[in-house]
Design brief:
- The complex is a heterodimer of chains A (about 675) and B (about 230).
- Chain A has about 675 residues and is an alpha+beta fold.
- Chain A contains 14 helices and 22 strands.
- Chain A is rod-shaped and about 190 Å long.
- Chain B is built from eight helices and twelve strands.
- In chain B, helix 2 runs parallel beside helix 3 and helix 6 packs across helix 8.
- Chain B is globular.
- The chains are: A alpha+beta (about 675), B alpha/beta (about 230).
Chain lengths: ~675, ~230
């Protein structure tokens, strides 16, 4: 993992900042929500207490009872007080409709609420119309604004319509009829009937007794509705203004098997005198009006009966400023991270409404509020904070990356410098970054110092051979001149033997000294050499001729191109280089081996190759071969390592390299294919 | 009997100095030895030797020999001077010869060779003082080699060669067309030199001839073998 990557990761760690911001925003949101909840609760409690004891508002106390007040003297003995209505099976509790149903006889636009339906059966299902008929109807009532809506779903095997055009009062023309009975606001009972002559709109009629006792059917235009037949029977949808209605309300079905037949009557009206049994428990329209004064955008106020039925509702939830597209892309983006999945967008609160004595719960006030109102606030804060932290993070990441890149550049410069410090010519002592005042500068300075010392040491080593040769030469001269003098003075034959040995030893020492100074002298020769253009081919060929004489135990083959291979350089040096290569090749090849001298042309270089059979080069060796004083004397099989008395200092190939470099070339060594020997390749610039 | 020749040896190493002195004395030379430049100059001021053998580094002065050579040459332009030094660098040899030394020898040289060189140098000095004799003269085209006087002429002009150079030219020109390898040249010159030094000697010889005749190319290199003289 590079430092650049590490530092980049470190920079990415600053993304914790926005994450922390999100966490903070959530905390803030919870706190805000809690506060909002509290205030909502107090709103609910305030409104609820303002509604305390207002049974009239909640349950539409009929006008004729209002005056009576607490001393209830209703003609009905089922209950003493409207606030404590004794429930009967005939009571209808209309649901609160969210929208106005279209009066078409279909139930589709009504809330799909099974529980709100009430069902009634005929007391004697085995009526005269037949045992098979199951007399049953369902009723669903609902309130929208000041209207009561009634949905009837009647099971009827034979839907019988009135005879069209006939008098509605002629019993022979009677089909299936629906009776609606209700008390008006003054407590008087009224009945209307609906006798349809076909599917579609229906008319409600009431029967009035005329001045002379004659009965007339009068249209009741305030009640409208529609009838549709169904596979089971028919459905009837009615609308009745609440203002017509008092406390009691009921429905009676006259189911006739055929026109004019005796009906099976059942429902919530007494079938004999059509007296209304059940009550209509519905909130006063004024409750809605009352609630409307608390109306606020983003707020929904509703009052529910203790059993949970909604009595009135003022809904302005959707009117709140919508946090939609106008919130901005960033804010929406942030919300993704902040909003917990499944978070409700509405908070609500509820408070109970008590009766006047504060003993009994007569209803519940529910308040709901969209979060959007204060989410705008939160969003703004969140957006600002996240923007800030993201920008900071981005700056930090970029800064870290730039810093890392810069650091990496410096480091790679250092590395490159340290790699190239050990050159063949010696050490590069100018080192980058040494002016830097930081730790890298320290490292660079440390390196620089180290390299300086190494340089001194290396140059000392490099000159050591020459110095040593020079220093040893003087004592050697003393020895040799003394021996020579001794010889001239004349010695006994016994001493002469030792003298001869001493002479031989000193000669060998002298040869060693010359070899030790060889590299230095080659360097000098190179620095004094003059470049000229010459053809490499005859030089190599004549050199090969001389090697055939010098090394009779080896064969020498040459392989040269037809054309002249002109290079610029010093032929003397090239020959010297060949000498060293051939020396080396002879040392490592078995007796009788053929050493190949090859000249070939490359686009940029003239290549001289010397191949010798023998041991291959190890990978480890080949990198060092051309270094000064490197020596790997694993002699060829059959060639004793000390077969010749020539001293070796590992300078031969070093000299080859020096000469190759003088010709702007390079020396490389490799094993022959199949590890059958070694090949030394010298490229000389053309 | 001729007056014995006086050889001055300036050498800071006492053992070498005494060994050389003994060798020269055995040859019948009068030997004077000096350890440093001031000693030598004091003595030379009163009497010049017939030949001086000088080491380059003298006690405190690493290049004292060069300075001594310069001063000596100022005293006598004809006095034969031989550098004998442990240094074997090309640069030193060039500097020494440029200062007017007649030869530049390394201490690898055996005493016998040294004596031979000194004798040869004396012979040249003597020969130069005598009228010319034709006996020892070799002629190869424009080249005239006087072995007696150890003098070389090219197209009638004297080529000033050091003793080593003379012997190399002599060995090459004596058998024109024959390749002389480096060892043969060394033997001819009575010196022990490595290949590079022979190469640089040959190079210097060519340059000296070319300063007289820019078209000179009589000394040819036979790569890997040696050199030959071409008429």
């Amino acid at each position: 993992m590079s430092i650049r990557l590490k530092l980049l990761l470190l920079g990415l760690a600053t993304l914790v900042l926005p994450w922390g911001g999100c966490r903070y925003a959530r905390e803030m949101e919870s706190a805000l929500r809690e506060g909002e909840q509290n205030s909502l609760l107090s709103v609910a409690q305030t409104i609820a207490s303002s509604l305390q004891g207002r049974v009239d508002l909640l349950y539409r106390k009929p006008a004729h009872l209002e005056d009576a007040g607490e001393s209830e003297t209703a003609d009905d003995n089922t209950t003493a007080r409207p606030s404590e209505p004794k429930p009967t099976p005939y009571d209808l509790r209309p649901i609160l409709l969210a929208a106005q149903p279209f009066l078409d006889g279909y139930v589709e636009e009504w809330p799909q609420s099974k529980a709100a339906w009430r069902y009634y059966f005929a007391r004697n299902p085995a009526g005269p119309t037949g045992a098979t008929g199951q007399h049953k109807f369902g009723i669903l009532t609902g309130v929208f604004e000041r209207m009561l809506y009634v949905m009837l779903d009647v099971n009827d095997e034979h839907l019988v319509f009135d005879t069209p055009g006939a008098s509605p009062l002629d019993p022979n023309t009677f089909g299936d009829r629906i009776w609606i009975g209700f008390e008006d606001q003054d407590g008087r009972e009224h009945q209307v009937f609906i006798g349809a002559t076909g599917p579609g709109s229906v008319t409600a009629r009431r029967i009035e007794t005329g001045e002379y006792g004659q009965l007339t059917a009068v249209n009741e235009p305030r009640i409208v509705g529609a009838l549709q037949s169904t596979p089971r029977g028919y459905q009837l949808e009615l609308r009745i203004p609440l203002s017509m209605l008092g406390e009691r309300f009921g429905v009676l079905i006259d189911d006739r098997g055929q026109r004019g037949a005796d009906p099976v009557s059942y429902g919530t009206l007494r079938s004999d005198d059509l007296h209304t049994v059940g009550r209509l428990i519905v909130a006063s329209p004024e409750l809605t009006t009352y609630l409307k004064q608390f109306r606020q955008p983003g707020l929904r106020l509703s009052v529910a009966a203790p059993e949970g039925r909604l009595l009135a509702q003022v809904d302005a939830l959707s009117e709140a400023a919508v946090l939609g597209p106008e919130r901005g892309i960033l804010a929406q983006f942030y919300r993704r991270f902040v909003d917990r999945p499944g978070t409700r967008r509405v908070i609500d609160s509820a408070a109970d409404i008590y009766d006047r004595e504060h003993k009994q719960i007569i209803g519940t006030l529910q308040v709901a509020q969209t979060e959007d109102r204060w989410l705008i606030l939160r969003d703004r804060a969140l957006t600002h904070m996240l923007n800030l932290t993201l920008v900071i993070s981005a700056i930090l990441v970029v800064a870290t990356f730039i810093f890392a890149a810069w650091l990496a550049v410096r480091l790679s410069r250092l590395r490159a410098a340290s790699e190239s410090a050990l050159t063949r010519e010696g050490l590069v002592t100018t080192f980058p970054e040494t002016d830097a005042s930081d730790e890298l500068g320290d490292v660079a300075r440390g390196f620089s110092t180290l390299l300086h010392r190494l340089n001194e040491y290396t140059s000392y080593l490099r000159t050591l051979a020459g110095k040593l040769a020079h220093e040893i030469r003087t004592p050697l001269t003393i020895v040799r001149s003394s021996l020579e003098n001794m010889e001239s003075e004349g010695v006994t034959s016994a001493a002469g033997v030792y003298l001869k040995r001493a002479r031989q030893g000193s000669e060998r020492l002298n040869a060693i000294l010359i070899a030790m100074g060889a590299a230095t002298r080659v360097e000098e020769a190179i620095s004094n050499a003059e470049r000229m253009r010459f053809d490499l081919v005859p030089v190599v060929q004549s050199a090969a001729d001389s090697y055939r004489i010098a090394f009779p135990q080896r064969a020498f083959a040459t392989e040269v191109p037809e054309e002249a291979v002109e290079i610029e350089g010093a032929p003397d040096l090239v020959v010297q280089m060949l000498d060293k290569l051939v020396d080396n090749a002879v040392d490592f090849s078995p007796e009788g081996a053929t050493i190949m001298l090859r000249v070939r042309l490359e686009p940029q270089a003239a290549v001289v190759e010397v191949d010798n059979p023998g041991p291959p080069l190890s990978a480890e060796t080949s990198g060092h071969l051309f270094e000064s004083l490197w020596q790997s004397r694993a002699a060829a099989p059959g060639v004793p390592a000390d077969s010749d008395s020539r001293p070796h200092f590992g300078l031969g190939l070093y000299i080859v390299r020096l000469i190759a470099e003088f010709h702007r070339g390079a020396a490389t060594a490799s094993s022959l294919p199949g590890d059958s020997g070694a090949r030394f390749t010298i490229r000389l610039a053309r | 009997m001729i007056m014995k020749r006086m050889v001055a040896i300036v050498e800071d190493e006492p053992a070498i100095r005494d060994n050389y002195a003994a060798a020269f004395a055995r040859e019948g030379y009068v030997v004077r030895t000096y350890a440093n430049r001031s000693q030598a100059m004091t003595a030379f001021a009163s009497r010049l030797p017939d030949l001086a053998v000088i080491d380059i580094s003298l006690e405190e002065e690493p290049e004292g020999g060069f300075e001594l050579c310069r001063q000596l040459r100022a005293l006598s332009p004809e006095l034969p001077i031989i550098f004998l030094t442990a240094r074997d660098s090309e640069l030193d040899a060039v500097s020494g010869l440029r200062l007017g030394a007649d030869d530049f020898l390394t201490k690898d040289l055996s005493l016998a060779h040294l004596i031979a060189r000194v004798n040869a140098l004396f012979r040249r000095v003597d020969a130069l003082r005598r009228p010319t004799e034709a006996a020892q003269i070799v002629r190869r085209g424009p080249l005239t080699l006087d072995a007696e006087r150890m003098q070389v002429e090219w197209e009638g002009q004297v080529v000033l060669l050091s003793l080593t150079e003379f012997w190399i030219v002599y060995a090459l020109a004596h058998h024109p067309g024959h390749v002389k390898n480096r060892q043969q040249l060394m033997d001819a010159a009575n010196v022990v030199l490595d290949d590079n030094t022979i190469t640089s000697h040959v190079k210097r010889i060519r340059r000296k001839f070319q300063s007289i005749d820019p078209k000179f190319d009589a000394v040819q290199t036979v790569y890997g073998m040696g050199y030959r003289w071409v008429d």
